[in-house]
Design a protein that fits this description.
single chain; 269 residues; 2 domains; 4-stranded antiparallel beta sheet; 49% helix; elongated; disordered N terminus
Length: 269
């Protein structure tokens, strides 16, 4: 009888209490008696996305073994999930002092640096991973995505000067118009520097008496839109086109049959 009354009370009004009771049961943590068990419990909690609780068991391991690289690296990864980026970076650096080529930790570090908007350092870290494991497709894709998300910066007062000359002709090769611009931005990354180094090796770059390098190239553009306003010089990596340079030109209206010739001049100090 008492049991029946108690059930009726729950069903009629104390829904919150039921939810709280269930939540409490779900959050209860097993004990675990040794490192192996703590590792298993932590992994199970990660699978349930209970990251803060998973760290509890990693900390138990680290109390016993402060230099357990697996536990330190795993904790650094979980701190990323919790958006505790500086703590994660500190842990990753600690691990890398002991094992500089640990790929899981280097990956955590690269991701953390990206989240902290340290794009150049993140790129360098991804590059180091690829020096260790050149066929790691996940890292190649992650590095390409990093470059796609890295903001460009103005070329004004930088090591690059960029000029574009745009010539538009109709299908009969009649001149329609000419415009030019130096309003440019560039990807401030080792990726851009490697591109420059690669074309330098191909002797595409000429140098003046002051040691300034000059690159010139003409692109032919078949319009997909009825105007142009931003021009890009791109390089592909892992199937993704990365914009090395962007130039903003006066808006030009086009006909679908027009042909656009873009002459790039890039000077590097």
């Amino acid at each position: 009888m008492i049991k029946t009354i108690f059930t009726a009370i729950i069903c009629s009004g104390i829904l919150f209490s039921i939810q709280a009771t269930y939540a409490q049961e779900e959050l209860s943590l097993p004990e675990g008696k040794n490192i192996k068990e703590w590792e298993s419990i932590s992994a199970a909690l990660v699978a349930e996305k209970r990251f803060s609780e998973a760290i509890i068991y990693l900390d138990k391991i680290l109390e016993q073994e402060p230099d357990n690289l697996k536990a330190l690296s795993n904790k650094a990864g979980l701190l990323i999930k919790l958006e505790r980026f500086e703590e994660s970076l500190d842990l990753s650096n600690k691990v890398l002092e002991l094992d500089p080529n640990r790929i899981s930790t280097l990956t955590n570090k690269a991701i953390t640096l990206k989240m902290m908007k340290e794009y150049k350092e993140s790129f360098k870290t991804f590059t180091k991973i690829l020096e260790i494991d050149s066929n790691n497709m996940k890292i190649k894709n992650a590095q390409a995505n990093l470059l796609l998300s890295t903001p460009t910066i103005p070329t004004k007062d930088s090591r690059y000067y960029v000029h574009v000359l745009v010539t538009i002709r109709d299908s009969n090769n009649n001149l329609i118009g000419v415009t030019e611009s130096t309003n440019a931005r560039f990807l401030d990354s080792e990726f851009t520097e490697k591109w420059w180094s690669d074309i330098e090796k191909k002797e595409i770059i000429s140098y003046d008496n002051e040691g300034k390098g000059k690159f010139q190239n003409i692109q032919t553009l078949i319009p997909k839109d009825d105007y142009i306003g931003m021009l890009t010089l791109e390089k592909e990596i892992s199937g993704k086109s990365i914009q090395l340079f962007q130039v903003f030109s006066p808006l030009v209206q086009l006909e679908i049959s027009d042909i656009v010739y873009i002459q790039w001049t890039i000077i590097k100090n």
